[in-house]
Amino acid sequence: MRRLIAILLGACLFAGLSAQTPTVIVGDVMNSETGEAIANAHIYFRGTEVGTTSDQEGSFALKVLLDKQRTLIVSSLGYRTETFKITPGQMAGLQVSL
User: Fold this and answer.
1) Collapsed DSSP state (helix, strand, coil) of residue 7
2) DSSP-assigned states of every residue in 8-76
3) Minimal CA–CA distance to 50: which of 38, 37, 61, 39?
């Protein structure tokens, strides 16, 4: 009986996790003065280990499962840091000027 309960509980937890809608954030990081792309900018969620860097064209993409509203941080050495509030399940396209 305990084994059956454990299996059902595990199945319910797995079903709950797999039913979550992913949060998708895509965007570009640009120099606010010149409009040029900023490569290798850091894009990450505060308080987590989830993040990425922008490519040579300044583009980035993140697809994650968030448990609560988080702060997305975009930074690059020599530029000011920008922050954005991101909610679970949100799909956003960001044009970030540093």
Assistant:
1) helix
2) HHHHHHHHHHHTSPPEEEEEEEE-TTT--B-TT-EEEETTSS-EEE--TTSEEEEEE--SS-EEEEEE-
3) 61
Is-above-0.70 flag for pTM?
yes
When pLDDT is cut at 50, 70 and 90, the band that residue 19 belongs to is low
Given a contact cutoff of 8 angstroms between Cβ atoms, the answer to whether 4 and 64 are in contact is: no
How many whole angstroms separate alpha carbon 45 and alpha carbon 30?
Answer: 19
DSSP 19-37: TSPPEEEEEEEE-TTT--B
Distance of CA 94 to the CA centre of its chain: 11
3-state SS, residue 87: coil
pLDDT tens by residue, 32-78: 999 999 999 999 999 888 999 999 999 999 999 888 999 999 999 99
Rg, C-alpha atoms of the chain: 18
Report d(CA 38, CA 8) in Å as an integer. 49
